[in-house]
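The passage that follows is intended for readers who have already worked through the single-chain material. We present the inputs for a multi-component assembly, then the predicted structure in tokenized form, and finally a short commentary. You are encouraged to pause after the input and sketch how you expect the pieces to fit together before reading on.
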Amino acid sequence: MFPRLVYESFRHQARRKLLAGIAITLGVAVATAMIAVATDIGDKINRELRSYGANLVVTPQEDTLDVEVGGVNLKPPSDGAFLNEADLPKIRGTFWHNNIVGFSPMLPVTVKLGSGPDTKEITLVGTYFNKDLSFGKEDFRTGVSITHPWWKVSCGDGRLARPGRVEDSPPACGWPNDDSQDILVGERLAAKLAKKPGDALDVAGRQLTISGILSTGGAEDDQIVAPLALAQQILGKPGAVRRVYVSALTKPQDAFAARDPKTMTPEVYDRWYCSPYVQSIAYQLQEVVPHSHAEQIRQVAQNEGTVLSRIKGLMLLVTLAALFASALAVSAAMATAIFERRVEVGLMKALGAGNLAVSAIFFAEALLLALVGGIAGFSAGALLARQIGRSIFNSQISVEPVLFPVILAIAVFVTFAGSAAAIRRAVKFDPVFALRGEG
Amino acid sequence: MSTFPGTFHTPNPVADRRAQAPHASMFTRMLLRAAVLRRRRAAAALLAMVVAAAVATAMMNLYVDVQAKLRTEFRNYGANVVVVAKDGQSLPADALAKVEFAAGPGGKMLAVPFSYAVARTKDGQSVVVVGTDFTRARQLNHWWKVSHWPDGQNQALIGMRAANVVSPNRQPFELTFQGKAIELTPAGMLQTGAGEDSRIYLDQSQFQNWTGVAPSTIEVAVNGTAAEVETSVRQLAQLLPSADVRPVRQIMEGEANVLNKTRATLYASATLVVLTSALCVLATLMGWVFDRRRDFAIMKALGASERLVNGFFAAEAAAMGAVGAILGFFIGIGVAVWIGRANFHAPVVPRFSVFPYVLAGSVAVALISAILPIIMLRRVQPAIILRGE
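Having made your guess, compare it with the prediction:
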């Protein structure tokens, strides 16, 4: 009799059940999507924060002072120590290699521009643009197109070149190949020299082709940027690198992060080493690159923690608001659906049904609705989260399968809680009044 | 069952007074009595309305305000505009005053002058010495890790790496610039992980007395949207034709990127939350109106026109929406202020500009939830409803 009552109720009141079911589905969908977005937002924003550029710099341990004013390098070119280019792929061999988004070596060289009486001293920086490297079995790409996303290469006619792509006109305009002899000229320098892409430039006695105009808003606008190998040839030091910028995904710092690893006990040290703090990544970089000193770039590294925690906190609060609103919507829909059925309750009670039996029917119906709505809502919410991830972050926001039973349990709980008050009122209502239609 | 007990045939002063009241007030009276007599159901519907309006208000308030809050956070990344003298010259002496003037009385900008010289240590090492205003530099560059800021004559702030060269034991040291020597005491160490680590910082006036070099760079932190920063750049370029004024692209683009993504996420979330709240109102109010089908039937049976009945329910819903919006608005402002305190440690400024949207939205949702059940009821004969079927 009990299953039949529930079944008939669904068959004959399909419209009302549908309304309540839709409310539950929508509520669960919003809750699922918001929880998925909120749990993933830290990761996503962390990645977006990498658009501020490198947060670590690796320099030779025994380096002399940098003497640089306004982007002009005054340090004697062969002075000081160098890192070895051959050691760089090992950066991908650190414990946190998956967190290292990219790295770019830099080798500034002072070169003579032009020939004859009007020679001019200028800084040429050698670097990777979009270099293919491999470490062990792993192939990867790295260079300034990843670590310095605000660097723009234009063809001189307003068009921007994308990394690794050579535009057709003017001939050979775009980011230089890392194994070519092509160079980029900073935009202010190019304006001063009246040069455009495709022109040749006399640099340190070599005729080099300009493949694009570089705009960075920084010191590079007055400099020449060339493939690293070319800078090494000009300097006459193969394999030399002055410093390496590393862009890594890090965990916001706390008091533990700033502790000195030398004073730690082995267990504490392991915990510190296995947390992606900017300090521990710096420590690991020093381990893999011989004779190096790795340091966080405080302007970038110190600020991302606050920005990240603010955004995460905000999303957490918004998610709470979303959960609250969906719980309320589900309760409201359930309460309305039950309140409309007082006459039915009156009839059941007049026929001798006890309060318990009547409540049991309502709760069974609520459970069915919650389960069906929960499953539909979870799928819809997962789709919604994916859509948000794709349209805003261009990457997947996946919903953890662990979330499914949790969401389902919440859906059932909220549906029960929303129905409970209404069921109690319906059961307590005098059947005589209900049947006479007064209430 | 009488909807208006005591209104007819009761010879008492209240009834007389009511009878003499203008006929037009019947409509208002019906509205008021309906709210009073069914206060429990009315209160439940109003509560849903208030909560929905509050959540919507809080979301809209946050959406508008959070961007300003985050921009303030992003200013911790330092200058987003630099003013640089052309071709290694110095800036005119009034450059800083002009930048300050452009900032206006509101002080939306923070400008820090920097002057550079290459000095030599006793053993002939070149080192870059920078003159600046320490108070301003401290405000601008929050990420500078400084053990102690200089506060006296001949005191210098020394970069970590420079310290190893000029003053490994933190003893006083001598620098020469174009034959002029100066004796300096290290006040504190500076650590940034960037170029600053190789430099020595002095107070601007002392630096200028020693080297005679005036500031060549002014770093400016402009608070505001990307468009406002653009305007400031143009304005500064006009005021200082002898200098290059350029935005720091690294900072500007990083900020724009993170802010856009956060805004888009917040927008999507706020939309979802507002939609869910509207759904909640819809469910509650539809139930409330549907529940009153008996009133509807009595009014029709007594000869009320379709227009009057529709008008009555619509006016009731609109009044409910308006009251709910007003109450919810203030609660929502309170929630937004609390979130601002909890998350940003700064109060959220109440945006009264969102009120019309909340009001219009609430009334619209309320009207929709009243009209839907009425359309369904219109097809039913009053007699059937009154018989309770």
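Commentary: Chain B has two domains: 27-72+258-386, 80-247. The longest helix of chain B spans residues 249-291. How closely did your sketch match?
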